[in-house]
Amino acid sequence: MTKLFVREHLLTILFPIVIAGMSCLLFWLDGYGSVNTMLYVFIVTVVLTAVLHFYLYLRKYKYYRRITTPPKAMEDMLEKLYASPEQSAEQHYMKQLYKLYQQEVQSLYSAQKRHLQFMNGWVHQMKTPIAVIELMIQEQDRIDSQSVSEEMERLKRALEAVLMNARLDTFEEDLRIERVHLSDMVKAIVNENKRLFIRNQLYPRVEIDETVEVTTDRKWVQFIITQFITNAVKYSFTPQSSIWITSERTPGRISLTVKDEGIGIPSSDIKRVTRAFFTGENGRKTGESTGMGLYIANEVCERLGHKLEIESEQQVGTSVTIHFIEEQEGES
């Protein structure tokens, strides 16, 4: 600690001594021959400099002891010291830095916990299609290719959800904003999921203006719409019912809605369905929900500047809407 103090204050220690020595030399050259007086001035300067720096050393003793002692915990940096205004400002800065550190650690911990929970749920969910495929293989009769295809689709959708969840952490690096033709994109998604509709005896009704274009990221929005359609099919237990996919243009906004005629969401769950891992009452009925689909959709909408709106009535149906905010002509 002493060496550190001397190295820090070496200039202020030597400067007054050098000034006193030069003053004595000037007096001597000017003809003032009293050696005792000059020696007295020099000694007084040295003593006063020593006393001043000893006082400064005492004031900084706790500070030097803290920075030269290996810390045992991060909280050691929050130790209160009766220090100079400069050190007080430094302590305040360190406290603010510590808060930022805690926030970053908490964010990383939450992300790690979210990934772990999601992977555990996903692995558990994947056991079902894998077990079904294994049973088909073990049967002596001919394998039903349609059934295998259905299970493979479930695996594919689950894998896509895992990839999208992982990409959330590097969202900005995977972003590509462009003008997207809404009608063509929705029709392509419906065509990709046609077997899902046929298998569940549901009818997709697409009513989207052919001229509508939105500014967004095509890949992320495709995932979101696919998630809405998958949920609509999953919770539509009545055969021959319809799933409506419509668009609406209002000043400064283009809205895309996916509406089903399913069991609906209980009012107590509406505000919580976008939380991570929340499956709710309906999720417990099907046993296939990971509670991540709407969470990812909501996160993506917020980061893209879109608005997600969910309306539902039990035994009537659910409508999920993405509002694409569009700048009107003339706005800067």
From TrEMBL:
Q: Listed GO molecular functions? A: kinase activity
PROSITE patterns reported for this sequence: HIS_KIN, PROKAR_LIPOPROTEIN
Top EC group? transferase
Gene3D superfamilies for this protein: Histidine kinase-like ATPase, C-terminal domain
Q: What is its EC number?
A: 2.7.13.3
From the record, give the transmembrane residue ranges. Answer: 12-31, 37-58
SMART domains on file: HATPase_c
- Please give the catalytic activity noted in the UniProt record: ATP + protein L-histidine = ADP + protein N-phospho-L-histidine
Q: Kindly indicate whether the keyword Transcription belongs to this entry.
A: no
InterPro entries cross-referenced by the UniProt entry:
BphY/WalK/GraS-like, HATPase_C_sf, HATPase_dom, His_kinase_dom, HisK_dim/P_dom
Histidine kinase domain boundaries? 121-328
Localization (cell): Cell membrane
What SUPFAM superfamilies does UniProt report for this protein, alphabetically? ATPase domain of HSP90 chaperone/DNA topoisomerase II/histidine kinase
Q: How does it sit in the membrane?
A: Multi-pass membrane protein
**UniProtKB keywords:** ATP-binding, Cell membrane, Kinase, Membrane, Nucleotide-binding, Transferase, Transmembrane, Transmembrane helix, Two-component regulatory system
Q: Does the keyword ATP-binding apply?
A: yes
The protein's name: histidine kinase
What is the scientific name of the source organism?
Answer: Chryseomicrobium palamuruense
